[in-house]
Protein 1
Amino acid sequence: MELKVVVSLLLQGVSLGMLYFLIASGLSLIFGLMGVLNLAHGSLFMWGAYVAMTVYGLTGSFALGLVGGLLAGAALGVVLETTLIRRLYGNPVGQILLTLGLILVLDETVKLIWGPTLLPYPKPAFLAGSAEVLGRAFPHYRIFLIVLGALVWLVIHLVLNRTKVGLIIRAGVEDREMVTTLGIDVKKVFTGVFALGGALAALGGAAAGPFLLVYPQLGLNNLFPAIIVVVIGGLGSFTGSVIGGLLVGVTQSFVGYYEPQLAVAVNVALMALVLLVRPHGLLGHRGV
Amino acid sequence: MAKVSRRTGTERTWLLTGGLLGLLFAFPVLSPSVYYVSLLTSAALYGVLAMSYDLLMGYTGILSFGHALFFGVGAYGAGILMRDAGFDFFSAMAVVLALSAVLAAVIGLLSLRVKGVYFAMVTMAFAEFFHILVEKLYHITGGSDGFTRIPTPVWLGGTVQKYYVALVFAIAMYLLARRLVSSPVGSVWLAIRENETRAAMLGYDTFSYKLAVMVISGMMAALTGGLYAVVVNFAHPGFISVSTTINLLLMVVIGGVGTLSGGFIGALIVQPLGRILSSYFRAWLLVFGVVYVLIVLFFPAGILGSVRMWRLRRRRPPGAPRGPEAGPAVPTASPAGPGGAPMTPAAPRATPGAGPAAGDGGAGGP
Amino acid sequence: MTLGTMTAQESTGQALHVDHLSVYIGELHILEDVTLRASRGRCTALLGRNGSGKTTTLKSIMGLVPPAGGRVTFYGRDITGRPAHEVARLGIGYVPEDRGVFTGLTVRENLLLAQRKRDDERLRRVVRLFSELDPLLDRRAGTLSGGERQMVAIARALVNPVRLLLVDEPSKGLAPRAVRRLAELLAEVKKEATVLLVEQNFFLAAELADHCYVLDSGRTVYEGPMGELEADEETRRKYLGVA
Ligand SMILES: Nc1ncnc2c1ncn2[C@@H]1O[C@H](COP(=O)(O)OP(=O)(O)O)[C@@H](O)[C@H]1O
Ligand SMILES: [Mg+2]
């Protein structure tokens, strides 16, 4: 295989991986701290895409669209946590059933507001072209996804590792009860984490919208990849979800080059493999 | 066993059951159009599917996201065998049963090593893998267009015949499931649901019991899938998709987790009622979602479970002590580690001797 | 150096008063009727066999297990059933039975997490007292020995001003040498803080405590000065299984 092709596939894989990471990061964060498998994550992702598209359409500013999507996700996260999810902490099955219902509610609301059809969410002009890498065209938008993914990872990484809030979150992942005995009101922190998780999900949707198109099944279609990435990386490990995303993206890119038919099966196969060898994911370390 | 004495005082229930059965058998005559007969046919089959899911979720506390896989295996298995391999209906079903048993055992052996959310994820991965497989192997399965022209046996020729076969099948499967959950094996399943660590400490090989329930419910789902495919002459990759499993979850939760018959109520609501209402009322699914969320939050025992608890409370004299009975399975699988709620292997009765489904209420512990 | 803080009016009397406390978990009575007092500036031991309810008593004081009846008063203030983070902010430090050290965090992070109001001077003093932690500050707590983890857990409870320290079986699972060092440290700590100590190791308790209570099946069955229990072989045999 030519080096040019390898580099190009690698780049394509990394951009796909970053997209996967953006899709999965909020899910990973929420599961990591709160042990809540938020099945409505895909729907928050979709809400981000729709709100961003709408704000972009109204203001003409792509950046404002991203911010609008992000804020919508954060607000939804706060509302859902404080009114519903809070009632079911310590009841993982109840949470799964609840967030499952929220998929219906959120997705149907999208249909009522924006209609059941595919809507245009164009790329902004400055991201519509492509660059040349080793003589092959590489779309600007993919570069944007790589940069945004890296940025999100860096910011969350710094927050988790350099701030007191991050310290509380990491400690809360290990032992919630012990954190409260240190005088910390974990409830507030939980609401904050849910807001952050919702914001990340929605930002992912806002950024991925022009790439994946905007339609009412967008949420469900991306829930599964998000779960796969988080499971591969290790439930509860944020860095794991970066690694999981990149692994899936790059593998898919290479497999797709040789056997396009198999590309879709790659993430499922990877997940099955990881779960069989390391049932708690690459970086997961918690007991069964 | 003291079954008979348990039934006294529930004569009304039996009358109700009899009346309901009479109504169901007379339905093709009463129905204004065959359309409703076919709707009820598919509701009966989805009811069996939901009930098989309830064996896993409601009776053993196993949350699988891959149950639709077995439905799909049954549908495609029966379809391929009957259309392309020249099998007749019954031999195709026999093969489907054997196949699904082996498949469920293999998947169970691999996935039961992990629990809770992880188990849900692994089973989801398996189902999704088959989903993709079926879409990709289009020269065998017809791909995403679906598998069409499945031959119908003569005795299953018309809409009304299909309805009666589905009805009898549903009743038979219900009685079988009822028999199972009130057997000694069933009480171990309940013990696992209440507190697996405790059940293991009492000396039960919980892994084998969980494997058994996976195989049994998998076979039941596959059989239902086979019959469904023959009834509608059609199989589709969507049968195996996660949204089918999600639908099953909705049915079981709405009807009542751990009640068996709740699955049928849920299927009735999600399938025909949903289909009829959504054609008149655009926001129906949104309303449905809100109602479902409210059920999860405030009536976690579902329709049937809540009715039973209400009747139980009414029957009990005020001020009587609250015993540690399990009641209908409220899906609160508390993260009970060692030392959760008090429990003895025979104590957690899912059906406190009331309601139409509780006829067989009283098997002793193993 | 001072690890505890006390106002003038607190310098006498009771720090903690647990009054007829009862706790149910499900249908089980875990605590029936527990009454105890921890006097300010003293070390009070809470003894009893495995499963007698000692941990539950501490958790209930801490607000981790809701009481079904009775009262918990802290310097005259009713804290019964208050959430744990509020209880902690009143100045109760808690060292749980399994030490509760965050294994994924470094020792320094464990201490910083606990400190509610940044006070580097106090942090330094604590590390000086627990001198073997000094070279370990940037190690992940998961890599420490049991004795070292126990020190982290106690040090962590002291990085805030504590008016009462609850310590649950600190010597559990430690090597004899580590138990010795622990005894030294706790002796230092109790000079300056009010301590309620749960301990299975009777001799360690006898060494540290001034006053003691014995629990059996969720009830307080004995109360008296530590020295008296040391002399009372029959009670010890009956409730503690030590002669
Ligand atoms: N979560 C729980 N569920 C059921 N029983 C419990 C629970 N926690 C403690 N117990 C029971 O309460 C009793 C007292 O426990 P504990 O307070 O831990 O005792 P100790 O600390 O004195 O060993 C024990 O019999 C224990 O089995
Ligand atoms: Mg204890």
Note: The first strand of chain A starts at residue 130 and ends at 133.
Protein 2
Amino acid sequence: MEDKILKKYSEDRCNISDKYMAHSINGEIETAIGNIKRLKTQLVRKDHLDHLKVRFGIHRDNYHVPTGVYAVGTPHKESPILVTANYKLTLDQLRRELKNLNLWILVIDTKGINVWCAAGKGSFSAEEIIYQVKKNQLDELVNHRRLILPQLSAPGVAAHEIFKYTGFKGEFGPIRASDIKSYIENGFKATGEMRRVTFTLKERLLVSPLEFIMSMKHFPIVLILIFLYNLFKTTEGLWISTVMTAFAYVVAIAIVTLVLPALLPLLPFRMFFVKALFLAVVWSGVVYHFRDFFFIYGSSYETLGHLLLMASIMGYLGTNFTGSTTFTSFSGVQRETLRLIPVVAIGVLGGMALLLLDLFI
Amino acid sequence: MEYMSLSYIKGVANIKLYPDKCSGCGGCIEVCPHNVLIIEDHKVAFLDQDNCIECGGCMKNCPFDAIVVKTGVG
Ligand code: SF4
Ligand code: SF4
């Protein structure tokens, strides 16, 4: 542990630019350890724009917050200290819930990653907190010896280590920033409810757009393959048939990345790829019924081939979605992946074989 | 409760308890985001092992190494 803390001193780069932060700051307050910037608790339009960009995967790495202590309201020597990650979205979600509160926020260096992921990767750690507590002279800033840690940092932070090296007692606060006010008013006690992770419809729909966009990354390959396939078949109506067939695939992808998350608890089966295949069967029925519209009416080989390929993609993306959920375990995903691989292999090979068969008969 | 209706594959969670080492301090219960653990007769026990997501928060915050979780990489 000692080495890890020492290593922090040599690694520290305090050169994160705060130009992305200026619109979030509202003056400074004087303290025993110097002037400290005060955070706004109201998000401005620029913040919302940033959030939108993050949701759609634009410049996601560009949201580091400079580490150190910030003030909220007019804190004093008895005000609580909240610890958080130096990811802008994380800090924004926190500060917007702190209206009318007076407290300190300690932003630690998690390499611009949110609390949960940073704890898993080891950058939201006891040694980083210990280092920042010392560097920022928190023992001079406040009279009490309590740090409120986000509960989701627990996989990375052994709270008892912090106490051992700094004298500050790390206490895990609630999971959601919106509960912090009641947690403090409650005398620093979190109810069972505050300690449970949820995955509500709203939370699921918030991860969907990024999921869809990420899944569409490799779509050009599918498009080219469909184009080449159609080229071999006939040159008549090449463009329209390619576009319409590709459209069926886009909807298939949209179904797993948007509909599956929305209906998650309602879909049968536990494994995600089976849930996705369930939707694939439904979608196959629709495509089959409207096969003229999608230009995949060449022969039943062709139709079946496309349906198998679509289902394989959907099954794969279904398992992929486990990565964005809050309640799947690594062992579970491993088990599911082992089942998924043969299914997708058969689907893809079978689908391609049928499509080729259609070309040669 | 919505989180109740969301549950993943049963019987795979890789977590072991060593109640002999447990002091009953409750630290693990405080950090668990999925209500997996309880204290029974002053020792840690499972409330619902299948809810465990193998995050390792309980293991990290147990001062007595009474919980071992095989956490996934990444
Ligand atoms: S590993 Fe995580 S989810 Fe599993 S019991 Fe421990 S704290 Fe709870
Ligand atoms: S944290 Fe460890 S010692 Fe404390 S109750 Fe849990 S298992 Fe027992």
Note: Residues 13-69 of chain B form a domain with the Alpha-Beta Plaits fold (CATH 3.30.70.20).
